[in-house]
Design a protein that fits this description.
heterodimer; A: alpha+beta; B: mainly alpha; 6 helices
Chain lengths: 176, 137
C-alpha cells in the first residue's frame, strides 16, 4: 500500500518530466512549398499533410511524418500533369501519397540531418537528407534540399527522356 | 486592292479580338478559371489584329501570284495555319502558381480559329463575289 502511494505520488512528477522532454509539436502553415526539378521537368506538389515534432534541444524525441498528395502535382502543363499522375509515373490512383517517416534526427555542422523511410509508388527506401530550421518568433521555417533517383522508386521508365535524378526543394513554415 | 485587304484584315482582327474576349469571359465564369495574367485582354486584341493584318498581306500576294486559285490557296493556308497553331496552348508551360493548367487549351484553342472565322465571315462584304450571268436553258 505504501509502495502504491509512493508510485501515485511520483506519477505527476514523471508526467511533468515527460512533457518537458517531448518535442515541440508544430503546426504547418499554408505557405509551404514542395518543388521538384531536373534538367527536363520541374513542378510543385500543392498539397501535403503531416506532423512535425521537433525540438533542437531534444532531437531524440523529434520526428517527422509527412504525406504528399500525388494528385496535387503541378508542372504548369495540363498534359504533363495528366502524364505524371498516370500509371507509368506516380500512378496516383493506386499510390495516392508519397510518405516520409523519420526514424532519427541528428545535429550537423550546418544544421540537422534526418534519416527515415521514403515510400513512393509502393517502394519503400531509407533516405537521409540535411535540413535547416530557422526560428522566427513563435514559429520557424524548415528548409531542405536533396535529390532522389526516380528509377529506384519505379517512377517513369528507366532510360526515358527525363533524367533519373530529381532535385527536391522543400520549405515548410511552421507555428506553435 | 491591298488597302481593301488591310481594312478587311483590321476589321476582322478587331472582331476576332472582341469574340475572343467574350468567349474568355464566358469560359472563365463557367469554369471558375482565371488565366487573365497569361492571356491578357490587350494581348488577345493585339494578336488578333496582327493576325488579321498578316492575313491581309497573305491574301493580297496569293491572289496576285495565283490569279484564279489564289483565294482558294489562301483560305486553305489560313485555316491550316490556324489549326497548326493550336499546338501552342497544349505545349504551353504556365507559372506553377496557376491553378488548373489543363483548362488552358480549352480557353485558347477556340481563339486561334476566331481570326480565320472573322475573315471568312466579313470577306464577302468587302470583296463581293463576281456575279456570274445566269443563262436559262
Amino acid at each position: 500500500m505504501k509502495k502504491l502511494s509512493l508510485f501515485l505520488a511520483t506519477l505527476p512528477a514523471l508526467a511533468a518530466v515527460f512533457a518537458f522532454t517531448s518535442a515541440q509539436v508544430w503546426t504547418i502553415k499554408e505557405t509551404y512549398s514542395i518543388q521538384f526539378s531536373n534538367s527536363d521537368v520541374n513542378g510543385i506538389f500543392k498539397k501535403f499533410t503531416g506532423s512535425i515534432d521537433f525540438d533542437e534541444a531534444n532531437l531524440a524525441t523529434s520526428k517527422f511524418n509527412i504525406s504528399i498528395d500525388v494528385a496535387s502535382i503541378n508542372t504548369g502543363n495540363g498534359l504533363q500533369n495528366k502524364h505524371a499522375k498516370g500509371e507509368e509515373w506516380f500512378d496516383a490512383a493506386k499510390y495516392p501519397y508519397i510518405k516520409y517517416t523519420s526514424s532519427k534526427i541528428e545535429k550537423t555542422a550546418t544544421g540537422f540531418k534526418v534519416s527515415g523511410q521514403l515510400e513512393m509508388k509502393g517502394v519503400k527506401k531509407d533516405l537521409s537528407f540535411p535540413f535547416t530550421f530557422v526560428k522566427n518568433g513563435n514559429g520557424g521555417t524548415f528548409n531542405a534540399e536533396f535529390s532522389v533517383n526516380k528509377n529506384e522508386y519505379k517512377v517513369g521508365k528507366s532510360g526515358d527522356s527525363v533524367g533519373e535524378i530529381i532535385k527536391l526543394k522543400i520549405s515548410i513554415p511552421v507555428k506553435k | 486592292m491591298f488597302k481593301k485587304s488591310l481594312i478587311l484584315g483590321l476589321i476582322s482582327g478587331i472582331l476576332a479580338g472582341i469574340a475572343s474576349l467574350v468567349y474568355a469571359q464566358i469560359y472563365n465564369s463557367a469554369l471558375g478559371t482565371d488565366f487573365s495574367t497569361i492571356a491578357k485582354p490587350s494581348g488577345i486584341i493585339i494578336t488578333c489584329i496582327i493576325s488579321g493584318l498578316l492575313a491581309a498581306t497573305g491574301f493580297y500576294f496569293s491572289t496576285r501570284w495565283f490569279k484564279h486559285t489564289g483565294e482558294i490557296i489562301f483560305n486553305l493556308s489560313f485555316t491550316i495555319l490556324s489549326f497548326i497553331t493550336i499546338m501552342g496552348p497544349f505545349a504551353a508551360k504556365l507559372p506553377l502558381t496557376m491553378e488548373m493548367p489543363e483548362l488552358f487549351p480549352g480557353l485558347t484553342v477556340p481563339m486561334h480559329f476566331f481570326p480565320v472565322l472573322a475573315w471568312l465571315t466579313l470577306k464577302p462584304l468587302l470583296f463581293r463575289p463576281e456575279k456570274t450571268p445566269f443563262y436559262p436553258a
